[in-house]
Amino acid sequence: MTATSANPQDVLRDEILADAKRQEERILRRAKQEADDILAKAKAEAEKEQRERLEAARAEAQRRRDLILGTVPVEVGRMRSARIEAALESVREETARRLAAREGLDYREALVSLAAAAIASMDGRKFVIALSAADRQALGDGWLEDVRRRAGRDVELSIAPEPAGIQTGLIVSDADGRRVCDQSFAARLARLWPQVRPGIAVAASLIQRGGSPKES
């Protein structure tokens, strides 16, 4: 018995189906590979972005740390300067208080020296000395002779008829009032303070010789 010959149409159909299956498998393999490539690329890009963000965050943290650390010496210096200024201001206030109270000095001798120094700094021979109301009453005119001798030249001195608005010291002016030398203790302290404060700061161990603050 001989085998029945295959139907050509069936053969063609089977070949078409087999080819379609092969193409489907190739498409599926290609799609899977493309999907895997896309996922791998996405993962790599995500990891790269994560690293970049991490580096950026680290750089920003370092920048902020450097900024904070950079302000520390400035703030420390500011605090030291404020402490020094406060201490010096206390010294100045205490000095002003003692001068106003005339502590530790021969007040009459101080006035004689101040008046003579003022006269020595001005030309002319006639001068008027203004005192506080209390000093005018306490001293009278007798001390002016000491001022004349201390001045070292022939001068005419008189006490101003009106008291000066000062607590201690005196104010010397020439006869016409064009030149005035304020020798009140408050005015002298204000004039001399910028010169003496560095020495006071060194003596009080607030700063080192040369001007730099001492380490605390």
Written account of the structure:
This protein is of the alpha+beta class and 216 residues long. It has two domains: 9-101; 106-203, ATP synthase, E subunit, C-terminal (hypothetical protein PF0899 fold), CATH 3.30.2320. Helix content is 66%, strand content 9%. It contains five helices and four strands; from the N terminus they run ααβααβββα. The chain has a four-stranded mixed β-sheet with strand order 2-1-3-4. The chain is rod-shaped, with a radius of gyration of 49 Å.
Task: Summarize it.
The protein is an alpha+beta fold and 216 residues long.
Observed structural traits:
single chain, alpha+beta, hypothetical protein PF0899 fold, 2 domains, 4-stranded mixed beta sheet, 66% helix, 9% strand
Topology:
Elements (H helix, E strand, L loop, with lengths): L7 H94 L5 H14 L5 E5 L2 H7 L4 H8 L4 E4 L9 E6 L5 E5 H19 L13
Parallel strand pairs: 1-2
Antiparallel strand pairs: 1-3, 3-4
Whole-number count of domains = 2
Please give the CATH class of the largest domain: Alpha Beta
**SS strand fraction:** 5-15%
SSE sequence, one letter per element: HHEHHEEEH
Question: Taking Cα atoms only, what radius of gyration do you get, to the nearest Å?
Answer: 49 Å
CATH architecture heading of the largest domain: 2-Layer Sandwich
Strand arrangement across the biggest beta sheet: 2-1-3-4
What's the CATH topology label of the largest domain?
hypothetical protein PF0899 fold
Write down the overall geometry.
rod-shaped
Q: Which segments are poorly predicted (pLDDT under 50) over 5 or more consecutive residues?
A: none
- Within CATH, the superfamily of the largest domain carries the name ATP synthase, E subunit, C-terminal
Helicity range of the residues? 55-70%
Please report the total strand number as a whole number.
Answer: 4
Biggest pleated-sheet summary = 4 strands, mixed
Question: What is the CA–CA distance across the termini?
Answer: 121 Å
